[in-house]
Write a sequence for this structure.
């Protein structure tokens, strides 16, 4: 596993397969832009460490694959890429420290990722349509 | 060191960064409320459902009188007003959302609750719940809280979180998840892991064995949320998600929130472990775990939390450093919680109580104990009336449907009351229309004592289908199964023009009902289904009118006993006025008053105004101190603009009479009410910015401008009053309509004060049901120029 810095904008081709796995980390600490395509969490954190001096520690392999675009301040972006893990972030004037504990375990939460990660569709689907009787039943079961 | 300790821990690692890195037990963001003298450090908003300040039975102490720990706290340290009103319709979701926003339903999108109909393009009708998460899309495809610009109305937590204050919500409407899986999809995404898991549980077969598993998503995700300030330690952990408010004025990016007990409890229990047990479950005020009916910790049940639960969660949130907390407490006149039915393993049938019944009294006692413990616990935490703003209100009052108590002199405290007959009277309006009027026009209604009608095909107000339906609905009469008396179902009809006056028409035309029937409050009106005789006359079973014992407290309607509720405030800047019923207010006034006291500002103009009558001068900007200009303008503004103000009530009487008149008269009404509405809206557009600028921008109100606006407002108020009382004949009953600025020509405290023979003559001439006339302590009669009349309970 290696990471190759291709440009000053921190475009990284990872895992020796630039066509499949790609990582771009750009911006300032308060406006980070990450474009990740099938790269491991460890690679994303390493890139953030290289560019923003983000410090991270973990006993976990951090091999979860990440794909997506993440924008925002460094702590927030870091939190987003750590979805699915228990973690803690410490923000100080010196920088951002991350402690990655482990992946969420079944039982930690009721809702856990399915075995085959579901691809979320865009948010904003309308609520279900009801009939008048269904609406009344919902109201009365709702009790308010 | 902390790293090593955490790595070595064997317990589930759901701790937030607050505990990992924080040095104290709490994890408060830098909350920057800007109250006068920086005295307000916390805001606690307590929203009751149907808890009454007034007595429902003169012998039985009212709900609040049976909760002295709360009532005395408000009366001794602040103020309580009984002259506080709901919007219309007067139903839970609309009322709470009006409180939260300071805006009427026409601007915040939900004037009909707890569900509402909408027209599809083909004229058919669907329904959507009024309870959905703030940013949800309604079933009609528009934002649930659609504002006047078609966007989602600004969120009530935004000014607080922008000021660095975390905001907690427990069971309050639409600030947390209300409906699954819809709200999980809104926030986490359709097909997200949470959606997949929640949907899988909800889709389990409805068997008794599956009941606990089907409840799990509700327990974990419904009813609880924390909206975090930027950089709040409470949201710097894996439980937090983006708090997306894409339509928020001025932008709202970078904020995070915790949704559901599954995400909130680990965080607040880390920050305030004393409020939780050793397993990270939040405790109620009695020390028991807040759990669902099957014992799973989390949201306790279906939006009917006990005071001990709501206040226990609120206290833990406050102790965790969340300075602003909104909580909801269920009413006490329904059995709560409902025991599980052994056959289904689900909560059993609903059961309502009458005033003074032993179980009702016991529930109020338990609520009172909870408030006592709550205030004591907060005081021990240093959270008290000197640094905390408490705002307390009830969404609406309601009307009891049942017979007389036994024994007649019961007081509930020393002598328990029992009721041989109790329960709302249900009707099937479609079958009644078929039977009594041979009207088979297809329609739907929102089931209520104030049903909104949606005539299929969405005909206009002057369409013969609509006009006939309105007249036929008004003509319906039924025999009351409790009293045996024959009575009308309709009290007041409001067409779309009148609903505009009443702030019930949103920016989405599809949500506009054909009309609303504000009905006799003893009745809960429904339409039938294939299993309840749809298409059959009332001579066939099941009956078209029947008493349903599970529910006995009707609301939604316009009557004073429903729409006149109460509010109380305690805290820095609130005067010690005790009980004070002198100031007319409604739910829209609470938001601007709270925001002004907190020294913050909303990004929109409120429909309400700051209640400076109850505030200390030192807590107000200079522009409001001893400002007679503000007071005079604000008070006349409420009578002009509030649905239960003069114009709202009088226009409803005018509308009802005109709708039920002939087509020519109705056309004249439409022209008149359009003119009144345009003038009202123009005046309101001038007054609202002045009131808001005085309250939030320290801009004093110019006396000359105020005088001119008040004069114009009063002229309009008087014009509508005259129209309500008798548009052609108001000279020869001058005294009556000057004293009767209520819902009718004559409003008196006693039937003896009604002109001798008046109602009886009306009854003989126009066949108004005789039992109504003179049989009650207060009578309202409405007469139009054609002599059509109705008398009823005032």
């Amino acid at each position: 596993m290696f990471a190759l810095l291709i440009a000053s904008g921190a475009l990284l081709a990872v895992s020796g397969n630039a066509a499949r796995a790609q990582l771009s980390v750009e911006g300032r600490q308060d406006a980070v832009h990450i474009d990740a395509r099938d790269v491991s969490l460890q690679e994303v954190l390493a890139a953030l460490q290289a560019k923003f001096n983000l410090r991270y520690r973990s006993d976990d392999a951090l091999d979860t694959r990440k794909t997506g675009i993440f924008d925002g301040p460094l702590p927030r972006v870091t939190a987003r890429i750590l979805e699915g893990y228990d973690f803690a972030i410490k923000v100080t004037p010196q920088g951002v420290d991350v402690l990655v504990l482990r992946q969420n375990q079944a039982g930690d939460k009721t809702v856990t990722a399915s075995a085959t990660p579901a691809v979320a569709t865009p948010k904003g689907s309308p609520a279900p349509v009801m009939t008048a009787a269904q609406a009344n039943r919902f109201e009365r079961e709702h009790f308010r | 060191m902390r790293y090593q300790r955490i790595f070595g821990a064997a317990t589930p690692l759901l701790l937030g960064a607050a505990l990992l890195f924080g040095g104290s037990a709490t994890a408060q963001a830098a909350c920057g409320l800007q109250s006068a003298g920086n005295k307000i450090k916390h805001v606690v908003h307590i929203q009751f459902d149907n808890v009454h300040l007034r007595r429902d039975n003169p012998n039985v102490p009212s709900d609040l009188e049976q909760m002295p720990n709360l009532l005395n706290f408000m009366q001794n340290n602040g103020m309580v007003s009984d002259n506080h009103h709901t919007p219309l319709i007067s139903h839970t979701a609309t009322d709470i959302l009006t409180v939260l926003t300071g805006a009427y339903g026409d601007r915040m999108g939900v004037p009909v609750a707890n569900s509402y109909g909408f027209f599809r393009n083909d004229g058919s009708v669907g329904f959507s719940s009024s309870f959905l998460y703030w940013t949800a899309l309604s079933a009609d495809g528009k934002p649930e809280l659609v504002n006047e610009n078609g966007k989602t109305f600004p969120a009530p937590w935004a000014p607080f979180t922008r000021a660095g204050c975390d905001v907690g919500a427990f069971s309050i409407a639409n600030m947390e998840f209300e409906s699954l899986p819809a709200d999980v999809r809104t926030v986490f995404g359709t097909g997200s892991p949470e959606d997949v898991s929640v949907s899988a549980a909800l889709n389990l077969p409805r068997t008794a064995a599956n009941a606990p598993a089907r409840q799990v998503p509700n327990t974990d995700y419904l009813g609880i949320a924390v909206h975090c300030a930027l950089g709040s330690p409470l949201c710097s952990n894996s439980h937090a998600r983006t708090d997306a408010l894409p339509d928020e004025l001025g932008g709202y990016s970078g904020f995070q929130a915790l949704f559901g007990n599954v995400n909130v409890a680990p965080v607040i229990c880390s920050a305030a472990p004393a409020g939780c047990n050793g397993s990270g479950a939040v405790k109620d005020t009695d020390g028991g775990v807040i759990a669902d009916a099957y014992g799973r910790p989390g949201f306790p049940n279906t939006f009917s939390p006990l005071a001990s639960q709501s206040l226990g969660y609120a206290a833990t949130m406050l102790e965790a450093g969340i300075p602003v907390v909104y909580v909801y407490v269920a009413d006490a006149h329904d059995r709560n919680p409902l025991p599980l039915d052994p056959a289904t393993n689900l909560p059993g049938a609903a059961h309502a109580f009458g005033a003074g019944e032993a179980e009702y009294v016991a529930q109020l006692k338990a609520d009172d104990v909870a408030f006592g413990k709550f205030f004591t616990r907060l005081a021990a935490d240093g959270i008290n009336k000197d640094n905390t703003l408490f705002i307390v209100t009830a969404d609406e009052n309601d009307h009891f449907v049942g017979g007389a108590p036994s024994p007649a002199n019961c007081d509930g405290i020393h002598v328990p009351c029992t009721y041989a007959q109790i329960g709302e009277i249900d009707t099937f309006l479609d079958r009644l229309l078929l039977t009594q009027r041979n009207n088979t026009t297809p329609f739907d209604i929102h089931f209520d004592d104030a049903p909104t009608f949606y005539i299929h095909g969405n005909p206009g107000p002057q369409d013969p289908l609509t006009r006939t339906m309105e007249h036929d609905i008004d003509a319906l009469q039924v025999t009351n199964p409790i009293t045996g008396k024959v009575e009308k179902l309709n009290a007041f009809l409001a067409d779309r023009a009148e609903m505009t006056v009443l702030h019930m028409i949103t920016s989405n035309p599809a949500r506009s009902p054909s009309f609303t029937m504000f009905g006799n409050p003893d009745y809960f009106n429904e339409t039938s289904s294939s299993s309840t005789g749809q298409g059959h006359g009332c001579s066939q079973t099941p009956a078209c009118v029947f008493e349903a014992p599970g529910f006995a407290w009707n609301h939604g309607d316009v009557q004073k006993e429903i729409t006149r509720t109460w509010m109380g405030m305690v805290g820095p800047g609130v005067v010690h006025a005790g009980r004070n019923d002198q100031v007319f207010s409604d739910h829209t006034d609470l938001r601007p008053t709270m925001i002004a006291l907190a020294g913050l500002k909303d990004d929109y103009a409120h429909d309400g105004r700051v209640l400076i009558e109850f505030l200390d001068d030192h807590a107000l900007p200079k522009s409001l101190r001893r400002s007679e200009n503000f007071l005079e303008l604000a008070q006349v503004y409420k009578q002009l603009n509030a649905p239960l103000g003069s114009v709202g009530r009088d226009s409803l009487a005018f509308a009802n009479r005109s709708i039920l008149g002939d087509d020519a008269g109705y056309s004249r009404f439409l022209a008149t009410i359009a003119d009144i509405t345009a003038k009202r809206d123009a005046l309101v557009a001038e007054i609202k910015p002045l009131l808001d600028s005085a309250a939030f921008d320290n801009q004093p109100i110019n006396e000359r401008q105020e005088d001119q606006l008040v004069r114009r407002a009063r002229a309009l108020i008087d014009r509508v009053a005259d129209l309500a009382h008798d548009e052609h004949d108001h000279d020869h009953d001058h005294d009556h309509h000057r004293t009767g600025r209520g819902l009718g020509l004559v409003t008196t405290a006693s039937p003896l004060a009604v002109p001798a023979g008046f109602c009886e003559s009306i009854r003989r001439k126009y066949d108004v049901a005789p039992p109504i006339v003179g049989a009650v302590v207060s009578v309202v009669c409405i007469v139009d120029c054609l002599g059509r009349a109705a008398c009823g309970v005032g």
Q: What stands out?
A: Confidence is low (pLDDT under 50) at residues 1-26, 729-757, 759-794 of chain B. The domain at 2-110+145-179+222-400 of chain B is CATH 3.40.720 (Alkaline Phosphatase, subunit A).
